[in-house]
Amino acid sequence: MMTFQGSHILSVSQFDRDAISRILDVSAQMAPYAARQKRCHVLDGAILNSLFFEPSTRTRVSFGTAFNLLGGFVRETVGEENSSLSKGESLYDTAQVISGYSDVITMRHPQMHSVAEFAKGSNVPVINGGDGANEHPTQALLDLFTIKSEMAPYQKGLDGLNIVLMGDLKHGRTVHSLSKLLSLYDNVKVTMISPKALQMPTNVVDTLVNAGHQVEITDTIEDNLACDVIYQTRIQQERFASQDEADLYRGHFSLNRHVYQQYCKNHTVIMHPLPRDSRPEANELDTDLNDLDNLAIFRQAQNGVLVRMALFALTLGVEDKLTQYEKPITWYSNKY
Ligand code: NCD
């Protein structure tokens, strides 16, 4: 079993099935705190430095919220232009300095493998919030948590899952990390729907195939959506050489109520890491699906808080002390 305390979280490849099940169990223990039934102040006085050098809403804010929910303080740096990286400072030097100010660091950066490079200079745990088109490990963990909880009412789990990944599979780091994690389970069927030019990188496909899973690669939606979970993604326009090139693919694989009714199963669950591009020319996930019970996207984003709380508790070694540091909630809350 891997030791979490003091470890960086850089790639999903560092986890085995036991480690993941530990993360998912600790995440579930965080539910009463996130739902404001009680407080937990086990990280009282600890400092998170959150360094986000690419746009982010959910990842950045849920990391911060998660840390606050455990009683810790959060300091944020947003945008490379607001950091000395823009003066030519190396990731190593920045890491040496910021880790001296912190107990744990979360980081997002546009370059692949940059967060791992930063971590070499840090003497506190660094958690990867997305490194370019490479990986987004915490998203994949919250995706697994979501799949598990959404499948539970149907007596299904991660083993035997039939999932469709759709959209920009070439540049989408969330589907890279999720596929690698799914390869650890048994008998998974993954259908990858994308334009030919935006197919899943071969090394990610190989991870699934080598683990004995069934992988279908296609560029058509028709007759390919009868699955347990559809994981839709956004065209990652910021990773293309030009906007014109990205625009070629916008709106190709829109999922709307009509498509859902025509091709999905009764209970197919819809996921998306978000943000969905709601501009009419993209519209990959139509708002006409908003009142569908099986649209899990906002529950999925909410689960991000639980999983990130768990990762802080585990990397800072307090996961067994949660209940010793509880307090009642004194204010009005409509969350439970
Ligand atoms: C994703 C990302 O940044 O990789 N967003 C997220 O963290 N939930 C997906 C995206 O931007 O399309």
Proportion of residues in extended strands: 5-15%
Looking at the structure, what is the overall shape?
globular
Total number of beta strands = 11
Low-confidence stretches: none
The CATH superfamily of the largest domain bears the name Aspartate/ornithine carbamoyltransferase
Order of helices and strands: HHEEHEHEHEHEHEHEEHHEHE
Rg measurement, Å:
20 Å
CATH class of the largest domain: Alpha Beta
Give the structural class.
Answer: alpha/beta
Major β-sheet annotation? 5 strands, parallel
Helix percentage: 25-40%
Distinct helical segment count: 11
Description of the structure:
With 336 residues, this protein is α/β, with parallel strands linked by helices. The chain has 2 domains: 150 residues, 3-Layer(aba) Sandwich (Rossmann fold), CATH 3.40.50.1370; 162 residues, 3-Layer(aba) Sandwich (Rossmann fold), CATH 3.40.50. Helices cover 33% and strands 15% of the residues. It has a 5-stranded parallel beta sheet with strand order 8-7-6-9-10, with helices on one face. A 4-stranded parallel beta sheet has the order 3-2-4-5, sandwiched between helices. A two-stranded antiparallel ribbon has the order 1-11. Strand 2, helix 3 and strand 3 form a beta-alpha-beta unit. Helix 1 packs across helix 6, helix 3 packs across helix 11 and helix 6 packs across helix 7. The chain is globular, with a radius of gyration of 20 Å. The two termini are 35 Å apart. The relative contact order is 0.17. The mean pLDDT is 96. It binds N-carbamoyl-L-aspartate (NCD). The site of N-carbamoyl-L-aspartate has 12 residues, from helix 3 and helix 7.
